[in-house]
Structure formats: structure tokens, C-alpha cells
Design brief:
The complex is a heterodimer of chains A (about 260) and B (about 325). Chain A is α/β, with parallel strands linked by helices and about 260 residues long. Chain A has one domain: HUPs (Rossmann fold, 3-Layer(aba) Sandwich), CATH 3.40.50.620. Helices cover about 25% and strands about 25% of the residues of chain A. Chain A has 6 helices and 13 strands. In chain A, the strands form 2 sheets. Chain A has a 9-stranded mixed sheet, sandwiched between helices. Chain A has a two-stranded antiparallel sheet with strand order 2-3. The longest helix of chain A has 17 residues. Chain A is globular. Chain B has 8 helices and 17 strands. Chain B is elongated, with a radius of gyration of 23 Å. In chain B, a hairpin with a 2-residue loop joins strand 2 and strand 3. By secondary structure, chain B is of the alpha/beta class. A 9-stranded mixed sheet of chain B has the order 9-8-7-10-6-1-4-5-11, with helices on both faces. In chain B, strands 14-13-15-16-17 form a 5-stranded parallel sheet. In chain B, strands 2-3 form a two-stranded antiparallel ribbon. The chains are: A alpha/beta (about 260), B alpha/beta (about 325). At the A-B interface, helix 3, helix 4, strand 7, strand 8 and strand 9 of A face helix 4, strand 7, strand 8, strand 9 and strand 12 of B. The structure holds flavin-adenine dinucleotide and adenosine monophosphate. Flavin-adenine dinucleotide sits at the interface of chains B and A.
């Protein structure tokens, strides 16, 4: 039996979209962006469900944010998570990774768990700190960039990804936090039917007072770092663009490659 | 005198590049802050490394302990929190690497010291440290400052963000050995072994021409399009990380920080956005051509030639045109 808590974040997909900075320079315009579960968290939730399926136990997902977070929490329920909790309070707005870790720890400390899984990083702010900070606040060990988890009674044997394809094998006692790296499993697909099935399941909402955290510990005042302003990165030296229809452009490129002696 | 700590990163007997990148940048920040630059080195049998680092810093502090032989974030955290509490460096710099990210965030919380991760710029403004972070798929730079009441800061520094100086600035720092504060082995987290990268049936580092596909390839069923193109070019197919994560191609084909570093004569980036972890593995290629439907994709700023378009359309035509030209 293994009880796993998974922290999930809802993030915009900016890999293909045009990203426009708002007038106050402290946010991006997100009306035209599509949102989904953070890529790393998608692997984390899958890993938790696989472990539950193999060993028995329970998977609880937690998200910090507004009502819109229900959408990703429900996706997790449809995949096989047993319960979801949403942590919502206006005081949470503007939290950095540290403040988020404080909020999550306040909620998690009262729950029953063997392991907590987070993503190695969030695709939007890319702090890459929340899981480790959460572990430190809870007073338990952690491992980041985790690419394999084998749970054996009280301990987990894990693999961590280092640079250049090298990996490291570690053994960690429970309870522990694992910050999950992409690629360690194949996240399952959820159908609209599957989501419909869990649409009635209640997702309890907890505010700052419910988890015993005060407003000055969270949000911008409770954060370590402060955003001053966003800017568009300097473009650098841009490629020479080959114009035309795909046919024309491909033809011109072939000629350039020939001229350069590529073939 | 105020002090800046740079934590030296080493693995399997080698000091990692990010260490010298941080020492190079750290020297500038130290000058701006009127501080001394101190390299901090933890490990077992690391005296030689300490000697190597002394021309790079005003001082080298090292802690030599068999319990630090292999990296264990828990042990490193104990040693560093004791060193930092005692010496109170104004700024502590750590690599934003698998090593640094396992260590720094929890250390910062323990020390109640604000941390900014994955920094690509460090500025000193009126005696205060500010950083630049590159976020939202590389499309936004965020300037961030630290909590107002902070007097000490921690940053993790993106690898390759700062060029390492070609040679040591010859600071000739004093080397100081500090006794390890560790009294016992950490038994709740243990290093077991390294696992070397799997060897693939194709060595992408040896190829002159790489046709590299990213998430834009859309589906495993489209991989043959890239293979056919590679075939007429006499090259091989490589890829970005998501393609491996999705099991469309095996890991030894992956280019980037957690994959291979390649330097072919021609690198064709197809449907790859150009995240820094990818760029770090291929930007030294002789000729880079990028095809992407997003004109703002960061890959275009490292490419020599670019086509804004759909790779599904470009790949087959390009294959035909090349076949034609080969005659
Ligand atoms: C610790 C760590 C290590 C990492 N190591 C690596 C690494 O070694 N290598 C690596 O590559 N990444 C690595 N990454 C991941 C990296 O951050 C990016 O997520 C990844 O490189 C993105 O891959 P991509 O460009 O293929 O996908 P995306 O960023 O999703 O980009 C897809 C691109 O394809 C374009 N596109 C889509 N469809 C089409 C079409 N039909 N025609 C033309 N263009 C199209 C889109 O406009 C977009 O620009 C690592 C991340 C972390 C956190
Ligand atoms: N608002 C949030 N709600 C729930 N989990 C979060 C939130 N923000 C971050 N996390 C978790 O922390 C991980 C790392 O995020 P970050 O430190 O912001 O890069 C994510 O992958 C999530 O698992």
C-alpha cells in the first residue's frame, strides 16, 4: 500500500503561441492561450497512479489557484486519482515557488502520505524549487529530476537524471518528496467520457484559514523573489529567412545546401 | 570584507564547466558589490581541485570528508548551511544543474535566504542584487529582485548563460581547509551508483549531417519522413527531448543537456522550438537550418537559415529537390 500526494499546476502552453506582455509588464496576456496540466506534473500523476495500481493505496492531487484549476484536477481524477483538493484564497495571488511551497505544506502536513510527487519544474515560471522547498518545510528528504521510482516497503530506489545522459541511483526512506522529470512513463489519455464520469465528484476547496496559514506568509509579501518586469528577450542575430511557399522555400534551401557542399 | 560564494561543482573527478562560468561572472558581481570572491569546494580528496581553483578566486575554502565522496544533497546542505551561517556571504552562487537544483532550494529555505533559480543575468543596482530569468518557453525575460529585508541572497546560474573566461584571472587566492561539520552518514538518503548513458545503434555525435526532429513532428508515424530526408542527405535522424519522452525515438538520439552534444556540418532542426537545454547541445554546429511554423521560435536566433512553415510540407519537397539536385 502506498499513499501518494501529487501537486499539480495549470499552465499555459506557450511553445507555439505568440506571447504578449501586458501593459503593466508583470504578466502576459493569456486570453488566447490554451491551458493544460503542467507537462512534468502529467508524468508525476501517471507515476503515482501506476504505483497505486501496482501496490494499492491512494492518490490525492492538490492544486493551488482559482476555480479554473478544477479543470486539471478533474483530469487527474479521470486518470485514476482518488481525491482532489483545491487551495484557493485571494491572499495566494502573486506567490513565488517558496510561498506556494508554504501553502502546499500547510495543507499536506495534516494528510496521510508516504510520498509527495511534484513536477521537476513548471513550464510557465520554471522556478524548479517548489518540491524541494516543500520537503524542507515538511522536514523530509527529497530528490529532483527523478526518472524512475521503485517503491519497496519503507524505501524507494530512484534514478535521478544528471547531465549528458548520466544517471544516478539513490535510495531514500519514506516519507519523501520526488520532483519528477519528463519521460519516465507514458501518461495515459483521458477521454471526454472519462472526465464526464468524475464531473460530479466534489473537489473540496480550502482557504488560508482552513489550512492554518496567515496572509502575510503567502502571496507577494510571503515570497522570496519579486517580479519587477517582463521584457521580450533580445533577438540576437536572426537566421537568414528563406521566403516563399513550402515548395519554393524547400527548393531554395536545397540549392543553398548544395552550394554549401552538404551533399 | 563582504564575500561572494561560488559553489564548485564536480563529478567523477572533473570540475564542471558551470563552475568556471560562475567564477567568471562572480568576479564581475564581486567587483560591483565591493566583495571578495570565494570558491567553495566540498568532496572527498579534493585538495587538488582546491589548488586548481585558487587562480580563479580570492579565496578557496574546501571541506574534505569521505562522507562527501558522492553527491548527496542532504549532506551537502548540512555543510553549506554551517559555512554560510558562519561566514555570511552576501551572495551564494550555485549551478542550475541536477546537482544545484537538488541542493539549493532546500538550503535556501533552511537559511531563510531568498533564492532565484535559473538566472541568465545578475545585476547590481544600488548595492542590491537583481537577476534576469528566462521563462515561458524562452519567450520572456523576467527581471526579479529579492525580498526587501534580505541582506544575503542565493542564485542558481543557468549553465552556458555566462561564458567562462578563457583562462584563470590569476587571483591567486589562499586555500583554506575547513573541518567537516558532518558527524555521521546520512542514512535516509543514500547514493548507490552512477548509470552511464545507454549506447545506441547509431552514434549521432559522429554524423556529419543530422536531421533533428522536435515535438512538431506530431506523431511517431511521421518519423519516416525525417528518415527519408536523412537518407538522401546521407545523414541520420536526431531529436529533441519530448520525442524521446514520448518514445518516438530512443534516448541515444537525443540532443541537449540531458542528451548528447553534437557538432555536425549540418544540423537541420525541424519543429524544434529551441529551448536552451536543446541549444546547449547543438549550437556549435557548422551550419544550422531551422524549419518552424512559429516565426518567434527561439531556434531562429541560433540558425543560419530559417524557413517559417510546416515541416510536414517542407520535408517531402526538400527530399525531392535534393534528390533532383544530386542528379
Ligand atoms: C533538466 C532538463 C533537461 C532537459 N534536457 C533537454 C535535452 O537534452 N534536449 C532537449 O531537446 N530538451 C531538453 N529539455 C526540455 C526543453 O526544456 C524543452 O522542453 C524541449 O527542448 C522542447 O522540445 P521541442 O522544441 O521539440 O518542443 P516544443 O518546445 O514543444 O516546440 C515544438 C516546436 O515545433 C513547432 N511546430 C509544431 N508543429 C509544427 C509543424 N507542423 N511544422 C513546423 N513547426 C512545428 C512549434 O512552433 C514549436 O516551436 C530539458 C528540460 C529540463 C527541465
Ligand atoms: N500552484 C501550484 N499548485 C500545485 N502545485 C504547484 C503549483 N506551483 C508549482 N507546483 C508544483 O511544483 C512543481 C514545480 O514548480 P516550480 O517550482 O514553480 O517550477 C510543479 O511541477 C508542481 O508539481
Amino acid at each position: 500500500m502506498v499513499d501518494i500526494i501529487v501537486c499539480v499546476k495549470r499552465v499555459p502552453d506557450t511553445s507555439e503561441a505568440e506571447v504578449i506582455i501586458k501593459d503593466d509588464k508583470r504578466a502576459i496576456k493569456d486570453a488566447d492561450l490554451t491551458f493544460d496540466i503542467n507537462e512534468w506534473d502529467n508524468y508525476a500523476i501517471e507515476e503515482a497512479i501506476l504505483k497505486k495500481e501496482a501496490l494499492g493505496g491512494k492518490v490525492t492531487v492538490i492544486g493551488v489557484g482559482g476555480e479554473e484549476v478544477n479543470e486539471v484536477l478533474r483530469r487527474c481524477l479521470a486518470k485514476g486519482a482518488d481525491e482532489a483538493i483545491r487551495l484557493t484564497d485571494p491572499a495566494f495571488d502573486g506567490s513565488d515557488g517558496y510561498a506556494i511551497a508554504k501553502i502546499l505544506s500547510a495543507a499536506i502536513k495534516d494528510l496521510q502520505y508516504d510520498f509527495v510527487f511534484t513536477g521537476a519544474q513548471a513550464g510557465d515560471d520554471s522556478y524548479g524549487v517548489t518540491g524541494q522547498m516543500l520537503a524542507e518545510i515538511l522536514g523530509i528528504p527529497h530528490a529532483t529530476m527523478v526518472t524512475k521510482v521503485d517503491i519497496n516497503n519503507g524505501t524507494a530506489r530512484i534514478r535521478r537524471e544528471l547531465e549528458g545522459g548520466l544517471e544516478e541511483v539513490d535510495e531514500i526512506n519514506k516519507p519523501a518528496v520526488f520532483c519528477i522529470q519528463t519521460g519516465l512513463n507514458e501518461p495515459r489519455y483521458v477521454s471526454i467520457m472519462g472526465i464526464r464520469k468524475v464531473s460530479k465528484k466534489e473537489i473540496p476547496v480550502k482557504a488560508a484559514a482552513d489550512i492554518g496559514i496567515s496572509a502575510d506568509e503567502v502571496g507577494e509579501v510571503g515570497s522570496m523573489v519579486k517580479l519587477e518586469e517582463f521584457s521580450i528577450p533580445p533577438a540576437g542575430e536572426l537566421a537568414e529567412m528563406i521566403e516563399g511557399t513550402p515548395d519554393e522555400a524547400a527548393g531554395k534551401l536545397a540549392a543553398i545546401l548544395k552550394e554549401k557542399g552538404a551533399f | 570584507m563582504a564575500e561572494i560564494f561560488v559553489l564548485a561543482e564536480h563529478r567523477q573527478g572533473v570540475i564542471r564547466d558551470v563552475t568556471f562560468e560562475m567564477l567568471g561572472e562572480g568576479k564581475k558581481v564581486a567587483e560591483a558589490l565591493g566583495a571578495d570572491l570565494t570558491a567553495v569546494l566540498l568532496g572527498s580528496g579534493v585538495q587538488d581541485f582546491a589548488e586548481k581553483l585558487k587562480d580563479w578566486a580570492n579565496k578557496v575554502i574546501f571541506v574534505d570528508d569521505p562522507k562527501l565522496e558522492n553527491f548527496n544533497a542532504e549532506a551537502y546542505q548540512k555543510v553549506l548551511s554551517s559555512l554560510i551561517s558562519e561566514r555570511k556571504p552576501v551572495l551564494t552562487m550555485i549551478g542550475n544543474t541536477s546537482f544545484g537544483l537538488d541542493l539549493a532550494p532546500a538550503l535556501a529555505v533552511e537559511l531563510k535566504m531568498p533564492i532565484a533559480t535559473d538566472c541568465i543575468g545578475i545585476e547590481v543596482d544600488g548595492g542590491k542584487v537583481k537577476v534576469i530569468r528566462n521563462i515561458y518557453s524562452g519567450k520572456i525575460n523576467a527581471r526579479m529582485s529579492f525580498r526587501d529585508d534580505a541582506t544575503q541572497y542565493m542564485v542558481t546560474v543557468r549553465a552556458s548563460a555566462f561564458p567562462a573566461p578563457e583562462s584563470a584571472p590569476g587571483l591567486g587566492g589562499a586555500v583554506e581547509s575547513v573541518a567537516s561539520p558532518l558527524t555521521e552518514e546520512i542514512d535516509y538518503k543514500k547514493f548507490i551508483a552512477y548509470e552511464e548513458a545507454a549506447v545506441g545503434e547509431v552514434d549521432i555525435t559522429a554524423a556529419d549531417i543530422l536531421v533533428s526532429v522536435g515535438r512538431g513532428i506530431g506523431d511517431v508515424e511521421n518519423i519516416p519522413l525525417a528518415e527519408e530526408l536523412a537518407k538522401v542527405l546521407g545523414g541520420v535522424v536526431a531529436c529533441s527531448r519530448p520525442v524521446v519522452d514520448k518514445k518516438w525515438l530512443p534516448k541515444p538520439r537525443q540532443v541537449g543537456t540531458s542528451g548528447k552534444t553534437v557538432k555536425p556540418k549540418l544540423y537541420l532542426a525541424l519543429g524544434i522550438s529551441g529551448a536552451f537545454q536543446h541549444l546547449a547541445g547543438m549550437q556549435a554546429s557548422d551550419l544550422i537550418v531551422a524549419v518552424n511554423k512559429d516565426p518567434k521560435a527561439p531556434i531562429f536566433s541560433v540558425a543560419n537559415y530559417g524557413i517559417v512553415g510546416d515541416i510536414m510540407k517542407v520535408m517531402p519537397v526538400l527530399k525531392d529537390k535534393i534528390t533532383e539536385l544530386k542528379g
